[in-house]
Amino acid sequence: MQIDYAEGTWQIIQCQGCGEVSFREMWITSEDINPNGEAEPVVTLYPNRDKDNLLAKDFVVLPSKLRKIYKEVIESYNSNLFILCATGLRSIVEGICHSAGIEGKNLQLKIEGLHTKGYLTQKHATILHEHRYMGNSAVHELDIPTKEELFIAIRIIEHTIENLYEIEDQVDELRWLKERRLKKSRIEKQ
Fold this sequence. Notes:
The protein contains five helices and three strands; from the N terminus they run βββααααα.
């Protein structure tokens, strides 16, 4: 196979729907011809825009270091870097324990500490052990989890973050909205 010509173009583009900025690389070669004789360019977008990609949730109350790790977990998932994603999920669990002031000689004891101190139910702590197992297997045994496994694990960690960090802020906002509505109602009755 010989390529007679190749032409590449590169662009910075912005989605007119969501506003996300991407880098587009487009190549056309003499080998990229469809059965009708028309050139079919090969287009690659960075970051990857696969239909299975996840969007990082905007956690407002989550400590900044944990937010950064969470975003890296989403990026590694979207880039099909599954070992990094699994270890990142384990790191988030470790960071949650650290943020809560839970100490222990290993992550197993720290997760149990989250339950003992009342941050998690026993069932939720048991679920987080799955993140520990997944991360340990990825690092020590080079056991690569599937995209489906990681998807579920990410949803669980998002639920954990919402439960431990975000829900209280949302409850405060709910109370404020309710008080504002009741105050407005009392003023209108006068």
